[in-house]
Amino acid sequence: MANPAQQVSELRGRFVGPDGEFTGRVRIDGEHIAAVDEEASSSASDELTWVPGFVDLHNHGGNLGAFPSGTLEECRRAADFHRAHGTTTLLASLVSGNHAELCGQAEILAQLAEAGEIAGIHMEGPFVNAGKCGAQDPSRIVDGDPELFASVIDAAGGHLRAMTFAPETAAVPELLDLCAQHKIIASLGHTTADYELTVSVIAQAHERGVTVTATHLFNAMPPVHHREPGAVAALLNAAKAGEAYVELIADGVHLADGTVDMAYSGRAFAITDAMEAAGVSDGEYKLGHLRVQVTDGVARVDSGSIAGGTSTLAEQFARFAQRHGLAEAVRFTSTTAAHVLCDAGLQQATELGEVGIGKRANLVGLDSQLQVRRVMNGGRELEA
Questions:
Q1: CA distances from residue 125 to 64, 211, 213, 337 in whole angstroms, order as listed
Q2: Tens digits of pLDDT across the chain (384 residues)
Q3: Strand partners, 156
């Protein structure tokens, strides 16, 4: 488990943000960056490259801890695992469940949010399309139900930040009204919706001031056809117009690198969709109620569908940086996701995703191979 260690007052080395880099030092006062000195000398002992802490808005767990079904300690273990690998801001994701399951787990995760160990909760399902359930349990999928949604919102105690639903589900206007009232991101996914319906739901969300994202774009959606562009094209066009953001699982398993590069823009951001097998060996695990077999790091349910991820955002950062450079990788794994949270009204997210005065001292120190060597969380270095 990673635990907060001593407060650090100064870091030296190479610093990379979304707009460029410098070599020098950063002075930390409490939880924030107090000063940046780009003229300071750096010695051979300061060879780390520092980037903003990673921001993961879709994560089901890791290190044998499952956010959708784990105890408080198991969920804490999952959050600790990802934080130790540089993900200093994380939304803990649920999967489709019934009223008791969703509300009970939301109450557990709300305790982690109150303690500042996660940034909030993401409710993935149950208002999704059973024909595109992926690793969602078909027996738990139901039509859009505003009363159930409201119950989970209450159970989450103000910490529900995002909700995934299919555009074709029932009661979409009422679901969006609740998103607007509680500043919850509307994430569209697990869908067979056509282009026109998806565009309509995005427009309805914008009428209410609701931030829109795509839940793991391409995955659990029909492929783009030249005469049937579908939800994928609608969401990509909305992102191009500044009306949506899109999640990409850029682990080389869920999406080919070429697909990631095609979809990448300033409105696209990386997620892990990680499940409890992240960080541990191949074997049999669970996601919600479903059995998951992990072979060569790839998780699948019995139907053959990929069942969440086993990567960390640090691994996705390194993979993406090899093709696009460090600054773009910072945007992809940190800055843009922070903007999503800002747009959704999370005020403290304005302090994330950059290296600068007044920004939160969430920083990840990488070696020459882009492996995580040190993690700063709010000005404190985490013990390995």
A1: 22, 17, 14, 21
A2: 344 557 888 999 999 999 999 999 999 999 999 999 987 665 545 689 999 999 999 999 999 999 999 999 999 999 999 999 999 999 999 999 999 999 999 999 999 999 999 999 999 999 999 999 988 999 999 999 999 999 999 999 999 999 999 999 999 999 999 999 999 999 999 999 999 999 999 999 999 999 999 999 999 999 999 999 999 999 999 999 999 999 999 999 999 999 999 999 999 999 999 999 999 988 888 788 788 888 988 888 888 888 888 999 999 999 999 999 999 999 999 999 999 999 999 999 999 999 999 999 999 999 999 999 999 999 999 975
A3: none
Q: At a CB cut-off of 8 Å and minimum separation 6, what does 282 contact? A: 294, 295, 296, 297
Please return the burial class of 130, using the count of CB atoms within 10 Å of its CB with bins 0-12, 13-18 and 19+: middle
State whether residue 72 is helix, strand or coil. helix
Helix and strand totals (H; E) in the chain: 10, 21
Q: Are 186 and 211 in contact (CB under 8 A)?
A: yes
**Both tokens of residue 112?**
């982690």
Angle at 218 between CA 214 and CA 223, to 5 degrees: 130
The HSE-up count of residue 223 (CA atoms within 13 Å, CB side) is 4
Q: How far apart are CA 375 and CA 331, in angstroms?
A: 18
The residue type of 301 is V
End-to-end Cα spacing for the chain: 7
Q: From CA 235, how far away is CA 237, in angstroms rounded?
A: 5
Q: Checking DSSP bridges between strand 290-295 and strand 298-301, what pairing results, if any?
A: antiparallel
**Do the Cβ atoms of 280 and 64 come closer than 8 Å?**
yes
Give the alpha-carbon dihedral of 376, 318, 252, 137, to 10 degrees.
0
Nearest to 186 by CA among 196, 174, 195: 174
Q: Among 267, 345, 287, which residue's Cα sits nearest to residue 66?
A: 287
